[in-house]
Design goal:
CATH class of the domain at 19-165 and 239-346: Alpha Beta
Number of strands: 10
Largest sheet: 8 strands, mixed
Structural class: alpha/beta
CATH architecture of the domain at 19-165 and 239-346: 3-Layer(aba) Sandwich
Amino acid sequence: MIRRIANLFRKIKEGRPVVGATPADVIHRENKWRILRYRPDPEATPLETEPILLVPSLINRHYVLDLMPGKSFVEFLVGRGHDVYIIDWGTPGDEDRYLTFDDFCYTYLGRAIRKVAARSPTGKTHVLGYCLGGTLTTIYAALDSSRIASMITLAAPVDFHDEGLLSTWSRLPSLDLDALVDGTGNIPWQLMQTGFHLLRPTMNLSKAVYMLDRAWDDRFLDGFFAIETWSNDNVRFPGEAFRRYIKELYQRNLLVKEKFTVAGRVVRLSEISCPTLAVSFSHDNIVPAQSVEALLDHIDPDMGEVLELRGGHVGAVVSSRASTSLWPKLSDWFIGEDATLLETSKLETSKLETSKLENTPESKKNTSKRKTAAVEQAS
C-alpha cells in the first residue's frame, strides 16, 4: 500500500497528462465553435472513403474522442487511414444565453456537414454523433440526409421517456425549468455535473478505491487522470437551447411523436434516408439502451442496425477495451458503407453511360433500321 501511495503522489507531481493531442488544423470558425481536421498519419495508407465528421455533446469537451495517445478514438481512425473531422463547440459566453436549439441543430451542425461534405468528391460525409451530439445529428438527418453518406448514433437519446433516472427527474413537477433558465442564463456546468453524479452517488468513492488499488500501474494512472481532466472540464449550456431541450424532448418526448419542429419544419424520423447504426451500452446509466435503440422503430428497417456492447456511457468509448471492440466495429462499418456507396455509384454510372449510348444519332439510326426491318419482315 505504501508503495502504491508513493507512486500515486509521484504521478500527481508530474502533472496532468496531455489530452486532445492528435495534430489537427482549424478549417472553419464561427462564434465559439470550430471544425478541426486531423492531420493524416504519414505511416497510414489513406483510405478511398468518405470523410468522417464527429459531433460531440454540447456540454462536454470534444476531446473525449481524442483523450490521449493509446486511448483516442480519433487517433485510431486516423491510424486506419480515415479522413477525420470534429466539431469543437467551444465555451459559450453570457451573450450566448439566447442561442436556440435550432441554432445548434440546424444552422451550426448543418454548416459543419456541408463544409466537410464539400471536401469529398461525392459531396457526402459520414457523421458520428455522441450523446447529445447524436441526437442533434439524428434530427438534422431527418430534415436533410442528402449530404450524409451514413450515420452512427453513439449512446444518443431518441426516446426520452425511458426508465432512467435522468428522464424521471426531468419530468418531476417540482422542476421549475423557467426559473432556472431565467435566473442563470446559461446553465452552470457545476449544476449539471452534480446531477450526473447523483445518478451514481457512490461513484466518486468507488473510483478513489479503485485508483488506490491500481496506483502501482503508471499506464492506468495516466488514463485515470486523463478521464478525470475531461470530466471536470465541462461547459455551460446556453439557456434558451436548454429550455427547449428539456421541455420538448425530455418532458414532452416530441421527437418520437413526430411533433418536434426545427427551422419551422416537423422532424419526422421516418424520413431519414441514410444508412444508420445505433450504438448502445448495456451499463449506460445516462442514456439507457431502450432510448438509443428506439430510433430503429421509426426508420426504414433496411436502413438501420443496432449494436449493443458492454460498458458505460463514457467508459465504453475511452477504455482500453474499446480499441479492440468498439472502435474497429465503427471503422469497419464506415468502410462497409463506403463499399456499398461505391458499388451503387458504379451501377448508376453504368446506367447513365448506357442511356447516353442509346441516345446517340448512330444508335437511333440503328434502332430505326431494326424497326424498318421488323416491319418489312412482318409484311
